[in-house]
Design a protein that fits this description.
The strands form 2 sheets. This protein has a 5-stranded mixed beta sheet, covered by helices on one side. A two-stranded antiparallel ribbon has the order 1-3. It is built from 4 helices and 7 strands. The longest helix has 16 residues, at 42-57. It has a single domain, classed as 2-Layer Sandwich (Muramoyl-pentapeptide Carboxypeptidase, domain 2), CATH 3.30.1380.10. The chain starts with a strand and ends in a 19-residue tail after the last strand. The protein has helices at residues 10-13, 42-57, 71-80, 136-151, and strands at 5-7, 16-17, 39-41, 61-66, 101-107, 155-156, 163-165. α2 crosses α4 (136-151). The protein is globular, with a radius of gyration of 15 Å. By secondary structure, the protein is an alpha+beta fold.
Length: 184
């Protein structure tokens, strides 16, 4: 059976890919991905294409932090932070492991990330999508990202401003791409 995953082509989509879990500066504090390919389910990749076009219309681009996440990686993240508000229990299956979730932000023409009030994987209330006690500029930036992603066909979760997924994500099968192995 052919995998539903496709590689995100940064050049074709005019996005920047910075897979955080391919390095050590992440919530687990260790390199999780040995193979730093950015993969998504073909349905999510089609929506990402739309999001990239919309961002460019606003003079911005997307920077992708995470996309498809192999099951072993979900277990490592759960081990590092077993809090279902921020990391989905691998026993339930992550939407990243279905290939239908993407973590990202907006960057300007010089490659500088827009101020979203917190960094990626900042697992506290300040990172919640509609946290009110943030400057107006941060609120605008988050709402701009939200508008782009909703218009492109994604939906959001309340606890992470950077996380977007396809609607009805649970309907997609979990994917275990055996070609992707843990970092040693």
């Amino acid at each position: 059976m052919k995998s539903p995953l496709v590689e995100v082509d940064a050049q074709a989509l005019q996005v920047e890919i910075d897979l955080i879990y391919a390095g050590t500066d992440n919530l687990a504090g260790k390199r999780i991905y040995q193979d730093p390919r950015c993969l998504l389910h073909r349905d999510a990749e089609a929506c990402l294409r739309k999001a990239s076009t919309l961002a460019r219309q606003a003079g911005l681009r997307l920077r992708i932090f995470d996309a498809y996440r192999p099951p072993y990686a979900q277990y490592l993240l759960w081990e590092a932070l077993p809090n279902p508000e921020y990391v989905r229990d691998p026993g339930l299956g992550s939407h990243h492991t279905r290939g239908v979730a993407v973590d990202l932000t907006l960057i300007d023409a010089s490659g500088t990330a827009l101020d979203m009030g917190t960094g990626f994987d900042d697992m506290r209330e300040h990172s919640h999508q509609f946290f009110a006690d943030l400057p107006a500029e941060v609120q605008r930036n988050r709402l701009l990202l939200l508008g782009i992603m909703l218009a492109a066909g994604f939906t959001y979760i309340d606890s992470e401003w950077w996380h977007y997924q396809l609607p009805d994500a649970e309907q997609y099968a979990l994917i275990d791409d055996g070609s992707i192995r843990p970092a040693s």
